[in-house]
Design brief:
Blueprint: H1 16-22, E1 37-41, E2 44-48, H2 57-66, H3 70-85, H4 89-96, E3 98-102, E4 106-113, H5 118-124, E5 129-132, H6 146-150, E6 155-158, H7 176-191, E7 195-200, H8 202-211, E8 219-225, H9 240-256, H10 259-269, H11 272-282, H12 291-298, H13 306-315, E9 333-338, H14 349-360, E10 364-369, H15 376-379, H16 381-397
Helix pairs in contact: 7-8, 11-12
GO molecular function, one term: chlorophyllase activity
InterPro entries: AB_hydrolase_1, AB_hydrolase_fold
GO cellular component, one term: chloroplast
């Protein structure tokens, strides 16, 4: 998800006329990282995060394991399952998150869940799904989708490096290629099955880059939700609106590289009221911009490394353009595009290109979602599911 870099504190971007396309430069949203307990699952090292909503969770597990009575264990398990039902979808997601060690040094937060019967999934050949958030978001941004998708699919979601509860290493230079490599390695080391990649914004672009690699054999299909043209707005140089504002973007880059100024801007951006206004400008459905969403975006911004990640991403190279990559992808592609998107509008270069793709490539299908902004899956999840589920079903039966 893209949200504004919001340089209100230095007097820029006051005009709504100019900000409609630049106001999504970038923001941040990083999730709470906490103390973790290490276990091993197969060849991959994982870490179970303790339950933040039930401080007795660790003792609860030992009670179940050490109980000499099978019936008592069953009763205990059922009681905790009942307790889980009282949790919100956000709380359930946070509780189930694991950590994977990438390249032996970076802790990557991820989630896996499925309510579907394993024999049914095997029989119907349903592929696993990997959800990849956009800039400024994290795993909980999919909280309105995971339960629905998990009914028939094993659903994975990941916090990209620099976001959510994943590591935010100091002085790291973030690139689109880095995130694409992270996705490829996650497929190879964790999922280990042909998977449907579902991404939003820069998460979509990272999926495109990962899938365009001719050596990648674990991509079954791709779903792009308002795909970004680059890691930041500087990628869209053939849009007259960006050409007009390029000098301003370069000035913002210069200011953000000054530590004191960057810190002041960042502190201002992550204030609740500013975040709420930014999100409202990104969403078509204003009712979806609730306090829970604001907190999902706001809370992790206080983590060490959050400011550095913000500056690196906003000022860094935009990375590969999807226009140059889509012709390399022969797997089925579903495009879901909100028509109220101000970051990658349908009448902009990226929007026009993707709108023309179905007539050029038989593997591509496009649906335009009316009244929807840059984050369709959270903006109007019911409209996304209406198009996504039949497409996935057809893919699974092919």
């Amino acid at each position: 998800m893209e949200v504004t870099s919001a340089v209100h504190s230095v007097g820029f971007l006051h005009s709504q006329t100019h900000s409609s396309h630049v106001e999504n430069l970038n923001d941040k949203a990083f999730f709470i990282s906490t103390t973790i307990k290490r276990t091993r699952v197969g060849p991959v090292t994982h870490y179970h995060r303790p339950n933040h909503f039930n401080k007795g969770s660790r003792h609860r597990h030992s009670l179940i394991i050490n109980s000499s009575s099978a019936s008592n264990a069953t009763t205990t398990t059922e009681s905790y399952a009942s307790a889980d039902e009282s949790l919100s979808e956000l709380e359930k997601i946070k509780k189930k998150c694991l950590t994977w060690k990438w390249k032996g040094q970076y802790s990557i937060n991820y989630f896996v869940s499925s309510d579907a019967d394993s024999s049914q999934k095997l029989q119907t050949n349903y592929p696993p799904l990997l959800l990849v958030h956009g800039f400024g978001a994290s795993i909980p941004h999919w909280r309105r989708n995971i339960k629905t998708l998990s009914q028939n699919y094993t659903v994975y979601a990941i916090d990209l490096l620099g976001f959510g509860a994943s590591d935010k290493p100091p002085n790291f230079s973030y690139t689109m290629e880095t995130w694409a490599q992270l996705i490829q390695d996650f497929l190879d080391e964790v999922i280990q099955k042909p998977t449907v990649l579902i991404g939003n914004s820069v998460g979509s672009l990272a999926c495109v880059i990962a899938a365009s690699d001719s050596n990648q054999t674990l991509v079954r299909g791709i779903v792009l939700l308002n795909c970004s043209g680059g890691m930041n707005n500087k990628a869209i140089v053939d849009d007259w609106r960006i050409k007009l504002l390029l000098p301003l973007l370069w000035l913002i880059d210069f200011l953000l590289k000054q530590k004191g100024i960057a810190s002041a801007i960042f502190e201002r951006v992550k204030q609740r009221d500013n975040l709420r206004n930014i999100l409202s400008s990104v969403y078509g459905n204003k009712e979806a911009v609730d306090e829970e969403l604001v907190e999902i975006i706001r809370v992790p911004a206080d983590e060490p490394g959050a400011l550095d990640a913000f500056v690196s991403i906003v000022t860094g190279p935009p990375g590969p353009n999807p226009v140059q990559l889509m012709s390399n992808i022969s797997k089925p592609v579903l495009l879901l595009w909100g028509d109220q998107d101000t970051f990658t509008p349908l009448d902009g270069p990226v929007g026009k290109y993707f709108s023309s793709l179905p007539s050029q490539q038989e593997n591509v299908k496009l649906f335009v979602l009316e009244g929807v902004g840059h984050c369709p899956h959270d903006d109007r999840p019911e409209l996304v599911h209406e198009k996504l589920l039949p497409w996935l079903s057809n893919l699974s039966s092919s």
